[in-house]
Amino acid sequence: MTPSTSRSPNGSRGDLFDPQCPTRRLLDRIGTKWTSMAVKVLAEASPDEVRFAELQRRMAGVSQKMLSVTLQGLTRDGLVDRRVEATVPPRVYYSLTPLGLTLDEPLAALREWAEQHMAEIDRANRRSDKRTSG
Amino acid sequence: MTPSTSRSPNGSRGDLFDPQCPTRRLLDRIGTKWTSMAVKVLAEASPDEVRFAELQRRMAGVSQKMLSVTLQGLTRDGLVDRRVEATVPPRVYYSLTPLGLTLDEPLAALREWAEQHMAEIDRANRRSDKRTSG
DNA sequence: CAGGATCCTGTATGATACTG
DNA sequence: CAGTATCATACAGGATCCTG
């Protein structure tokens, strides 16, 4: 990140062209591989339901490390709540905070767009492929 | 996300996380550094207005190479239209396709969320920092 | 069970130089 | 003007082993 070394000379409102702009930073977050999937899974679960291993099961393909890193990032951002039951062995429950729940709304819009239009994007890609290879 | 499809295009490698998931692929796209910014700039411009150099000016910090790569990706996906005027020197105009315009809607929702809630995320981060360093 | 520590790799990004 | 080609690099992501 941090494309430029100096601050934007104009405006400096939360503008997309400012390296510090909120949208840039939000996209950096949800653009990481597992973040949006975690948000979705947590949004669809009840707060007392999902522990670490269960989350890993529901997020097919995620490694232990990346699940940990993802959840730490979300927790740091105040989007996810981490609740530890001090038992042996320990149980750690993850859930969305109210803030995290509000993030799921625009993400859901994005998911919906993806499901509705990805086939069209695939067609466009195939057209481009034909042009290139043919 | 959409764990339904279990088809493997290559016939093997069953442990790959669903490569067909539309949301995953969409996020891979808009998660790249300059894509969403390009979409926003193009969404706010008129089709006959924006050429390569102008686009680079409006997207502060983008390199020639990455702007080219970004636009090629968007064009391949059918989200951006590339129109060449065969003059000397050439003029190349970029604009969103109708499909690209529809993508700007959920992206705008994301931008709005970012502007409304990024300050709260910053506060959450500072709280975590205090806990860690203190 | 729920992670932390380490090592390694692919790839997105960037700087620079060149071209039709 | 609108790109390509080449080289270099930082970092996200993953595999594996270790621990309270």
Question: Would you write up a description of this structure?
Answer:
The structure is a homodimer. In chain A, helix 2 (about 35-45) crosses helix 5. Helices cover about 55% and strands about 10% of the residues of chain A. Chain A is elongated. Chain A has a single domain, classed as Winged helix-like DNA-binding domain superfamily/Winged helix DNA-binding domain (Arc Repressor Mutant, subunit A, Orthogonal Bundle). The first copy, chain A, has about 130 residues and is mainly α. Chain A contains 5 helices and 2 strands. In chain A, strand 1 (about 80-85) and strand 2 form a beta hairpin. The two termini of chain A are about 35 Å apart. The first copy, chain A, has a two-stranded antiparallel sheet with strand order 1-2. Chain A binds a DNA duplex (20 and 20 nucleotides) through helix 4.
